[in-house]
Amino acid sequence: MPFIDAFEVEQLKEKLSTDASRLGKLYKAKKSEYHNRNVDHNSVEDYLRDGWEEFAKPLKTKTKLRKLKSHDHKFEDDIWCQLYELGFRNLNYGRDFALPYGKGEKERKQIDVIAVNEDSILLIECKSAKQVIKAPSFKTEFEGLPLRLGGFKKTLAQMFGKSRKVKYIFATRNIRLPRDSSDVKRLENTNSFFYNDNTFDYVNGLLKAYKNAAHYQFMAILFRGEYIKKGALEVPAIEGKMGGLTYYMFSVEPHLLLKLGFILHRTRANEAEMPTYQRLLVPSRLKGITKFIDNGGYFPNSIIVNFTKQANRLRFEPSVRGEDSKSRFGTLKIPNAYAIAYIIDGQHRVYAYANSAHKESNTVPVVAFNNLDSTDQLKIFMDINENQKAVSTTLRITLEEDLYWNADRVDSRLKALRSSVIQKLGGDIASSLYNKISIGEDKALLSANPFASALSRSELLPSAKGNSYVEGTGEKSLYNVNNNNHEEEMSRTRNSLVAFLNLCYGFVESDYPKIFERERYFIVSNRGTFAFISLIGSLNSFESIKGSITPVSKPEIRFAAIEKYLRALMRELQKLEKEEEERVLAQLGSGADVAWLRFFQNLVNKKYPDYEPAELVDWKERQDQELQDKGRRLGTNTEKFLKRTVITKLKELFGSNWELEIGSIQRACESRAKELMEKQYKEGLGGTKIPWTDMFYVMDYKKIIESYWSKRPKKEDKNFKSFEEIFSYDAGYGFNSKAEKLKWLSIFNSHRNSWAHEGTKEKGLNKEEVEFLERLDAHFVASN
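Request: output the structure for the sequence above.
Response:
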């Protein structure tokens, strides 16, 4: 007995279209952000009052009007267009497709988008918001879904037969519905698919990179592990072993591998998969390979795949092993299911066949592993790609979670933890940083690198070398170094740290939106990322020392402890004079991120003077112009003493031949003098001659002193003092060897590099360094 009336079946079919011309026109209209309409001239005023606008030159009898689509209408159209681009050519054309799930009049559910092909039927419900919002509860809707799905399938079986697979898709835009929420779990328990912003962006990326071939990866996402057809594919194969792993070698038609295969792209859309590592395809390369294949070209090297746990029915039926080899021939029985073979290497070759005339006539060689451990699978990918195109810094940081999560070494596990935190911050739709961090192949406003750097240096996590934590770095972190259950502690710390950072960023987003929403400004920028997270770490350490928080404090308590400092920072940023703002924003280069951190710390210190970490005190001293002038004067005095004394001693030792004794140093000094004279001449400063003796480096003096350390003149002179007697100085690093007695020169040279760069405040001198120069001055200059 039919589930619904045959007349109603025909009415439903009429709300779908397979007409290529009609679908093409619909696609063009749905791609637009506007509704377009041509109306009689005398009706224009009514439409204008209803929000329409004129946008083109009037026609003879009609006026062209347009109106911006509402966010919900645009989202439905965008989903419809994606499916059209993926090759679906049986689609609804209106917004009134009400699908029966029961026989009663009220047992109908409006379906926003329905798409049908020869294999499947997709039912898509769309939920959107104009601005990003926290998700409402979908508990009632999803709890009733199993009943509706049962009815939907009966209706669809009447319409299209029973051969097609049915997939219900719940699509969202701008709705923060975490993938691990109870609502999503209810949805996925019905074998339905959650299609969030990440998925939408990923499919768009597939369409750009794969063109027509994107259909295969899309189907693999929706139907992963589900049977394409019952029964197994049987292929002749060879079983072998290497590196302790069993593998199979066989040949298969590309059209089959396209359905069985799946590429683990490192994108937010594959957030539930582990490991995900591949780059998206290069479209031009894909097109070129297709042309190469269609012109008779071929690739003799193998595609490398890994059959997943879903392929646990993989069976190898061997024949008798030969006497000369440990490998054996037989039949490999492969479940005929979607996305059971992850393509580790050869994705361009496989997907190039999607548009080739030879996808069913050619066969390609395959090396297949079965249920590889995730780290082994990732290692194969990294080993293959080591000498090919370099893995980007962002992708490398992203991969560290998969590579090192279960590593033996502590420092490797901490890399994995940082990687996991970054991906949670950027990939969780509930986060203020959602879609703002580049993760894997997903490009975004913020790089992953400043997050990794800040998390490494901020004391939010401990530091480690090899298999040991660096002493003193665990007490103030969120990580309990005394918990020997590493898996448990890493998961707990990740969740706690992500929640804490989300509270900090969410505070800025809600209370200071003008600062948060301004791109490449003080918070949402790469320099700002390092500075803000490092400041959060510094404040966390400060409050930890005060005893208000511990490594196991809840994120809410931790945030409450530092909120007042963050508010002080935001208020100071709001009050910045334009000139000061521009000065800080103009800071570029490798030291800019640290400079921004000190700037942030100083703004907090203005409101809360008790917050004054040692590094801030040091920075303030380096900004003290009076201190810098004093250090420069003392250092210059010592350098003059060095030059005067060294040259005098050389003359006492070698007389008129002193220059020949240091010939290599003299030539280097003459070259520097010549370069400086040329530079000054080109800058319009004239051709003033510069004596080569003015071009000594401090390390030149050190080299001369070391070379003639204890040398004395041939003619005995009781008043003569050797270089050793004059230049030995106890800098606090021992006073036994020549190296220890001259250590002060290396320190002096380091300080000289700071005062020599007068325009770079970050490289100034601190109080301790000036005191060192003062001691040198008293010892060498004032006493001689």
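The chain is about 50% helix and 15% strand.
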